[in-house]
Each structure stands twice: as structure tokens, then as C-alpha cells.
Amino acid sequence: MKRFFNLYLKCLLSVVITCNSCTDIKMPAIFGNNMVLQQQSQVAVWGWTKPDVNVYITGSWDHKTCSAKSDLNGYWRTRIETPIGGFKTYTLTISNGKTNTVLKNILIGEVWVCSGQSNMEMPMRGFPDEPVENGHEEIAASASSLIRCFTVKRASKATPQNDCSGSWKVAHPKTTPKFTATGYFFGRLLHQELNVPIGLIHISCGGSRIEAWMTPNALRDIPCKPIPASDADIEIQNETPASYSVNFLQTPN
User: Fold this and answer.
1) pTM, whole model, 2 decimals?
2) Would you say residue 1 has pLDDT above 60?
């Protein structure tokens, strides 16, 4: 019993330490392992930590460190300089002096947002009774560490969101079936022409109305249905004005 109790305490302590480490630095889901960063750019990087804390961001491509200071809400934001695209993988380290978050297997290349309705949403595996032409053959030959896709999970909200659900997936017969078909074929052609890694951010929703992607200010002079005051007031998912369908791009300044 004593041995069991000691083991239990060690496991509990490990969980507490892990959880505390995870909450010290938080970043939007778009920043994760396997991501692709835009080449030759000043790429915005942001996240949250404790208020009034210095945060340091270091990319392994040049080992330069950029810094930012969190505000009263713990929010911080800065920019990092990226090199020309290539096939070498990198890491991005974010530190607040006590906790380090290391993002791995990062590529530098071209990043494109793939948005729209069902014609963009249609996955490589197709819709029921609506297959992609030669889809099975294309999926079987899709393995490539240089083409990656981040698919944003649907979420209709009454207010702008600063995060989303999703993760970066490397093209492979096991993952490609869920990739946007239009985005994948575009990305593959772009990779063949430019010979750099391609990152696809898939943020589409079949049948959604443009009003659901617009801010209240943008809808101010446009006759439309009432804008919902809360999530409970959203009558139809992805159609109600200003319901911010899968919209993670509304980040704090």
C-alpha cells in the first residue's frame, strides 16, 4: 500500500507540473508542430502567458531572438523574420523565462488560405456519392513531407474568436483523404512550380453566407437579419449574420 501511495503521489505531481507548464505559455492552434511559415517575411507570432512577462521567440534557422511583453491580459505579439523557403526542417522556441514551448518539424515556404463554400470544402475522399476524379489514385500517391494542411474546425460564434480547433497534417495517404481537394491540387502544382514547401490553411464552410463571415461594422449599412448578441441567438449555423463561421483570424491587435 505504501509503495502504491508513493507511486500515486509521483504521478499526481507529474500531472500538476505538466499542466502548469502547459498553461504558462499558450498559443493559437495555428502555431504547432509540422506548420509551414511564409518565406522571406516578417511573420506575426502571438499568444498568451502571465501578465507583464517578457516572452522570447527564437527560430532555429538563424538563432535570432525576438521579444515581446505581455499586457495585463497576458496577451503578447511580435514578428519574426523568415528566410527563403527550403526543404530543411526547423524549430521555434517560445520562452517566458521559466517555461519553454518548442514547436518542431517546421518548414519555410509558401502559405495559402483556402476559403469558400462546398467547392473548397470537398475533401480528397469526396462527398457521399460525389467522388473526386481519380481520387483514390491521387491519395495513394500523395505522400509528401513538403505539402501540409491545417483544417479549421467549424464553429459558429456570436463574437470574434482568437483561436480555433485544428492541427497541421503532413500529406500522406492516411491524412490526405481529409484535405481540401481544390487546395491540395493547387498546393501540389505550386510546389512543383516553385520547388518550396506549401502550407494550406483550410477554412471553408459549404453553404455558408458571406454575412456570417463579416463583422458587425461591415454589415452596418447592409440590410440583413438581426446580428446575434450571443451564441444562443444564432438561428442557423454558418448563415446568421456575423456568426463568425470558423473564423480564427480575428486576433487582438
Assistant:
1) 0.85
2) no
